[in-house]
TrEMBL record:
Decomposes hydrogen peroxide into water and oxygen; serves to protect cells from the toxic effects of hydrogen peroxide. It comes from Rhabdonatronobacter sediminivivens. It holds the Pfam family Catalase-rel. This is Catalase. One of its GO terms (cellular component) is cytosol. It comes from the Bacteria.
Amino acid sequence: MAGPSKQTPDFGALISKTGLGGEVHQHAPDDGERLTTAQGVVIADNQNSLRAGAPGPTLMEDFALREKIFHFDHERIPERVVHARGYGAHGTFICTRALGDVTRAAPFATEGQETEVFVRFSTVAGSKGSPDLARDVRGFSVKFYTSEGNWDLVGNNIPVFFIQDAIKFPDLVHAVKPAPDRGFPQAQSAHDNFWDFISLTPEAMHMIMWQMSDRTIPRSFTTMEGFGVHTFRFVSAEGKSTFVKFHWKPRMGLQSVVWDEAVKSNGADPDRHRRDLWDAIERGDFPEWDLGVQMFDQDFADSFAFDVLDPTKLIPEEECPVELIGTLRLDRAVDNFFAETEQVAFCTANVIPGIDFSDDPLLQGRNFSYLDTQLKRLGGPNFTKLPVNQPRGCLVSNYQQDGHMQTEHRKGRINYEPNGWGEGPRAHPLEGYVSYKQQVTGDKVRLRPESFSDHYSQARQFYISQTASEQGHILAALAFELSKCTEPAIRERMVAHLMHIDTELAESAAEKLGMTDMPEPPPAAQPTQMGLKPSAALSIQSPSPDSFKGRVLGVLISDGFDGGLLMALKTAVKKEGGVVRIVAPKIGGAMCSSDNLHPVTDQLGGAPSVLFDAVAILPGEQSLSASPAAIDFLKDAHVHCKHIGASESAMDLIAACGLNSAQDDGMHRLSDPASAQAFVTACRTQRFWEREAAILP
Ligand code: HDD
């Protein structure tokens, strides 16, 4: 029998051929790595367990079998209690503006300074296997491996939160997660328990406006903003404190999808966001965000209309500008999802000299929770020794020892301090972390400050800062979510809260929910401040990104398509820094007009237009007007307000969809390179939102 090739040894095939006849030996490779047990013993046969006769019972003494299955049985660790589904990548933070006079934090010491980072994006409510495009808040966690230790900025893609005090967090999470009796719904807030809790929690109303907006259905991780949420402190070398709020601004611009698209994307590609990040890094199109800070002092805090320690409030950029101080670039995908993305352990209490906490009661509670949860999840106190969690730019030296899975092998007798042996690390009052010297007085009480009691004004401010289209999306989201509540009282309580935010919104929601009488608004601790000005920074749709960079044009072709037009589209998209995917009835390729077989990236049945940012339809003589998948492709692109480019040969498909090629300016005729260029330029705007008013009921 011929031996297997050295490049592609196929022992499985060999063994199955020989094993049936009772012959169980196999050919060993002459070189290359040997397969071993965890004890290092080379394994002779990885296809057959040790049996008493063949066939016959398996023997207990088969240590290779037992060890292999034992290890497999223990592969899983508890998923995160929230933010279970996430995706990480490595990168660099580059300081673009030194802040040495404001903070002694190492990453901001000098302009141009680089700090290694690991970033993990996540959804909140769904389990590890839930789809990426659930309507949900997204986590945005950044671990800075600084020369003075690890600093974790554990934020979200929304600048405010549902609750003001950490003591309410377990209830919030229980309410949104699957109900304990039935174990569903998964990765959704559209159910009774969530809205029951929310409608009894007025402080959540501002966050709810954000949650019902398209912020919770982002186009990708790379088009999300990020926020530290809480007010933190920068502390200078002299011990002076400046309050600070952190913002991440995506260089690709803020972009989201529409709800119907999110729902369909979850079926077509449940991994859409992680795939998008992976693909972007693999093709060298490294996603970037600017880090911005809002810095202010106690006088500003005292004069601001809300309490800066209240995590349900933001500070509008118009009142305190966001100053850009650095850039984050993600340029390395993980090598091993479990080792890095799963085992990374973030903690809000991981701060470095120059960064300190504020008295925000949510932040204070978080500082306890994160360390605690890692013990459960990662199994012991030595998770800081895992490579992804180890500090990089500095030494770690202390007397912490032993514990589960200790990997350090420290020598010598000294494991305490002070010691008279003159050995071992010592604390250093000048170089060490010193907490900001804040005066603290007061009675020990369980009391929410009065300054936290205005729950509706910023909810209204957010709502009036949205474009008409975005307001429509908020209304539709509320109607969708509340229509999933079976208990009418819950719907009524929610609509009653909306009365304090915007009466028109409340009335429209009531109408969409089929409510015959408007409920009375609940008593409010503070009346809504009607005079707050809209803030442009709160809208996603304005302004639009100024290029098609990082986005994907899906081009639908069929045999006989115009190859010249496709080339022109590819050239125009490449110039923008975008990506073209070619969709055709068969994955094997499509013949172009000059009889060349053109490669295809996606088969039409598996590539609905929800996976693309804009579409072009270039059929050849093979008409697509009778193809249900092609009709869905075009109809969906149209209803999701995408820019659509169409060649003359696409007219029968357009007619089959009941559309008209000239019905709006988002429909572009493709005939030559100039028209292809003009179409791609038009695609820079996120969508052709003007279409929405014409097509929505
Ligand atoms: Fe939290 C994870 C963000 C409030 C308790 N949280 C977690 C993650 C993010 C946030 C992004 C995922 C980290 C990762 O990628 O591994 N959490 C927030 C934000 C909050 C917030 C922005 C409010 C401003 N969290 C919050 C509160 C508590 C927690 C009030 C508890 C009192 N969060 C946790 C946790 C998690 C967590 C249970 C689960 C997994 C983990 O920590 O590592 O400790």
